[in-house]
Amino acid sequence: MRLSINKLLVTFTVSAIFVSVLMVCCINFSDDETITESADTAVTSAKEHVFHSGDLCGIWVPYFSLCTGDNMSELDFKSHFDEIIEKSKKHGINTIFVQVRPNCDSAYPSKIFPFMPMFGDSCDYDPLEYMIEKSHQAGLEFHAWINPYRISAVSTDIPSNSPCADWIGDTSKIVEVDGGLFMNPGSREVRSLIIDGVQELAQNYNIDGVHMDDYFYAFSNSDFDSTGYNEYVKSLKGKKPLTLEKWRCANVNVLVSGLHATVKQIDPDMLFGISPQANTENDISMGADVYTWCSQKGYVDYIAPQVYFSSENPICPYESCVDKWHSMITSPNVDYYVGLALYKIGTDEDNGAWQNPDIFSYQRDYALSHGANGYILYSYDYLFNAE
To answer: N or C: where does the chain have the smaller number of CB atoms within 10 Å of the terminal CB?
Structure first.
């Protein structure tokens, strides 16, 4: 009965956010206004957490880093994850960000999403439960990393057991981009699906945080969402509409504020954060309203821009980018973590700047001495580059 009441409370809160924010979008937005916090949330439960002390030293573990090969057994997976924990601890990591929802699928038995193919549909154990338990036993903070909108980056096929299977051919909900499929952020049904998935995660697992990566609008062609945008314009009855770019940002903001509210209603101590691209112009063009997230309460508990640039980068020099993001974070409720590109170390990018053996220690130290509360490394497979 308690879970049923919780679900009703979360559903009511999310619905209130949808209504209030969309009404703002349709009625009160001038051309330079942004979405603000829309609803308060009620506490429904609490969990035990393992939180880091001092600076956050994090590592991203993509879903493919969890796989040991074809026909991976339960023993194979668990032994491999034990190695991930051991190696992370050896390198001073105190927080682990594990990708548990990469392609509208899951690394846990979900009532909404099918298992990732690497685990198989007949998986009879709970990989996520094991990962959380082993992480906490090692004293590591555990964040469940989700890719909210991506269905597949390399295929237009949708499994019959996917929650998106009934949306095939409906561009108001699914958009084909470069041979892959992405959910349309402008769809209310899409937003509800994503929030339901995070609610399931937050209710059922003792995770310390929910983490969203940098996939938002995966398309720039206005034809894909012209119907939704035109309906929005008509609803204003002659009032000045948002531009298409700002309307897209408003759609993503509805999701982000809804996810934050859902997490906090289930457990006020659980964290919600986003790792956007570090180039803010790219973010805005993708519908990621990073300026609002950094300055207003009710969106994120932390922001972790992917500052994957060297000092010699001609568009976003590392130091300028770190300093810009620090200046953007004006809300006292938002922590700042810098994403560092371990995968670039030793490459020829930026005319060989990444071959400097001191580049990692320099970037880490610069971030921590210029306002960052910590850093996150991409990714686990390149952890040897931090040695």
So the answer is: N
